[in-house]
Amino acid sequence: MRTVLTLVYLELSMRSGAAPICAHGQAGCHLPFLADLFDRVIKQSSRLHGISSDLHSEFEQYFFPSKNIFGKRKCHTYGIITPDDKEDAQRLGRAQLTEVILKLLGAWGGPLSQLYWSMSQDQNQDFNINSSNKALEISGMVHELRDGVAKMAEKMKLFGVLGNTVSFVSPESLVPTSAFPFYKQRELDSLDHHDLLYCFRRDSNKVKNYLRILKCTTLPGLDC
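Now predict its structure.
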């Protein structure tokens, strides 16, 4: 009952723009509410990465069982500068890290929709009935996760732990036009599918890790 009353109080305080976030749990602290938002998006990002990893593995086993895939993959998100490791991400700052997360998620809306459509049209039905459903699922999850992170960022601004420089910009403005590859120009084949799945698995893993780091730098001491 006490927990319920605390959350109700935090929600009312949030609407009025009252108490700032605090580090040691003083009365009026927004920490539990913000921690819950982080837990939700982190859980969603982990599930998203898990599904994308499964789909990528299934695709490789079906089409490239020997994994003898030639050529260097060039992901369309190469223009988004991301931290190299955990320490680099921690040094980046909350505002910049939040923006990187939003950029990565925003850049995948179009490619995942195209991937689903292309898979659903493919003649390899033994594989693609299930895989196209997974592609559709992760496409929807990306939109939901990006909306969730954007809303969380707005709460962080309201609570005074994030500056006003982070904005919910349109996906088209996130990546230079020159970075968009074949998926906007022609129909996709199996190798194109593989490259997109490989790149998305990589980027979804980045998002998952960056969200965890963002939580730890924003709310230190909470399972970090």
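Residues 125-158 form the longest helix (34 residues).
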